[in-house]
Amino acid sequence: MSDSSPVAPSPSPSGARRPLAVLVTGAGGEMGHGLLAELSKRAKRSDLHVVAIDVRELDDASRKHVHQVAVGDICDRSLIDRLQAQYEIVEIFHLAALLSTRGEYVPETAHQVNVVGTVNLLRLAADEARSHGQRVKFFFPSSIAAYGLPNLATKRAAGTVSEDQFLEAHTMYGVNKREGELLGNYYANHYKKLAKDRLDRPIDFRSIRFPGIISADTVPSGGTSDYGPEMIHAGAAGKPYACFVRPDAKIPFMTMPEAIDAVLRLIDAPAEKLTRMVYNVTSFSPSAEDFANLVRGAFPGAQITFNPDLQRQSIVDSWPEDIDDSAARRDWGWTPAHTLKSAFEEYLVPRIRARYR
Ligand code: SER
Questions:
Q1: Rounded to whole angstroms, what are the CA distances from 27 to 23, 52, 119, 352?
Q2: 6 CA to middle of ligand 1, Å?
Q3: Residues 297-352: pLDDT tens digits?
Q4: What residue owns the CA closest to ligand 1's atom 6?
Q5: Does a structural domain hold residue 39?
Q6: Is the CB–ligand 1 distance for residue 143 below 6 Å?
Q7: Cα 228 from Cα 305, distance rounded (Å)
Q8: Which of 21, 92, 317, 322 could pair covalently with 87 via S-S, beta carbons 3.0-4.6 A apart?
Q9: Is 90 exceeded by the pLDDT of residue 15?
Q10: Whole-angstrom Cα distance, residue 299 to residue 261?
C-alpha cells in the first residue's frame, strides 16, 4: 500500500472520476459542530469535498462548511454504498455515537450504532483503499468511558491512569468505544488475514480517548460528563441547576477548541512519529465542586445544588480522575491550551455570557 496524500482521482467503474472526499459521520453533534469549519478550511487547501452524514439535517452554521449532507443512519449499508459510488473517500472522521447515559437505556441500540456502525465505516475505508490504492486515514474519537475502575477506592488510589490500565468498561458506550479501538487495530493491521487477495494495511487508524468536553457554543446530551457543561450553561442562563453527581466527583475535562486542535494535530502527524493507535489527552481535572465555585464566581446569581443520581454517579466513579497523556505530548506535540482557570476566564465565561445575553 502506498502512503496517504497526495492522492489522485481514480476512475470509477463507469470511467468517470469521483471527486475526492473527507467523510464526517455524526457531523451534527457537538464535536462535528466544532470540527467542520476546520475540516472545510483544510479540505479547500487539498481540493477535497467535505461530505457529512447525520441522522438529522445540519443547522445552517454547519451546512455551509460541507459539500453534501447525507441524512441517514450509519448502519444503513445502502447509504454508505451510495456515497462510495459518488466519492473517492480518502479520510474518515467517524464521530457518530450514542453516549454513555443514553446507551444505558437502550444498550443493544447503542451497540448497533456504536459497533455495527463503526464496522460499516471501517469496511468502507478498506474498500476505498482497495479502489484507489491509497491508505485511508480514519479518525475515531474514543473516550475515558473505555476505562472501568472497579470502585471509588481503587479510582482514588490509582490517580493518573495510563492508556493500558483498567480497561474493563462499565457502560455499553465504554465497551463499544474499546471495541472500536480494537476494531481499528484489526482493520489497520490484520484485516482478512487469510484471504488470498488481502490488502496489506489498508487503513491508517488514529484515535484519541477524550475526557469530558466543554463547549461554549453547544450543550451536550446523553452523556455522563454532561454535568460540567450543563452547570456552566445553566449558571450563565440564570437557570437553577441540580448537579447529578457528588461535589467530590472528579474526572478529566478539556474545552472543545482544545479537542478540535488535538484531532487535527493527530491526523496531520507524520505516521513514523506515532507509537500507538490510541492516545489519551487531557487539560484539567476539577471536582464538580470546583466547577460550581467557578460558575458561582462568574455568574453571581447561579443557583447550583447537588442531588446525586447514584447510578450516574457510579459511572463517573468508574472513570479515572486523571489520565496520563505523555505519549500524545511526546509523539505529536499535544499540549493543552488551558488550565481550569484560564478555560473559564478566557474561553467559557466570555463566550457563554455573550450567548445568553
Ligand atoms: N462525554 C461522554 C459521555 O459522558 C464521555 O466520552 O458519555
A1: 9, 6, 18, 22
A2: 35
A3: 999 999 999 999 999 999 999 999 999 999 999 999 999 999 999 999 999 999 99
A4: 143
A5: yes
A6: yes
A7: 13
A8: 21
A9: no
A10: 28
Q: What's the N-to-C CA distance of the chain in angstroms?
A: 54
Residue nearest to ligand 1 atom 3, measured at CA: 223
Residue 325 belongs to some domain of the structure = no
CB 121 within 8 A of CB 94: yes
Beta strands 160-161; 253-255: pairing state = unpaired
Cα(332) to centroid of ligand 1, in Å?
24
What's the domain range around 156? Answer: 20-211+254-280
Domain of 64, CATH number, reads 3.40.50.720
Kindly give the distance from the C-alpha atom of residue 331 to the centroid of ligand 1, in angstroms, as a whole number.
25
Q: Is residue 247 part of a domain?
A: yes
Taking a C-beta distance cutoff of 8 angstroms, is the pair 307, 243 a contact?
yes
Which candidate, 6, 30, 170, places its Cα nearest to that of 104? Answer: 170
Count structural domains, the chain. 2
Yes or no: say if 70 and 79 are a contact pair by the CB < 8 Å rule: yes
Nearest CA to ligand 1 atom 2: 223
Kindly report, residue by residue over 41-90, the tens digit of the pLDDT.
999 888 999 999 999 999 999 999 999 999 999 999 999 999 999 999 99
5, pLDDT greater than 70: no
Place of cell 454504498: 81
User: DSSP secondary-structure letter at 148?
Assistant: B
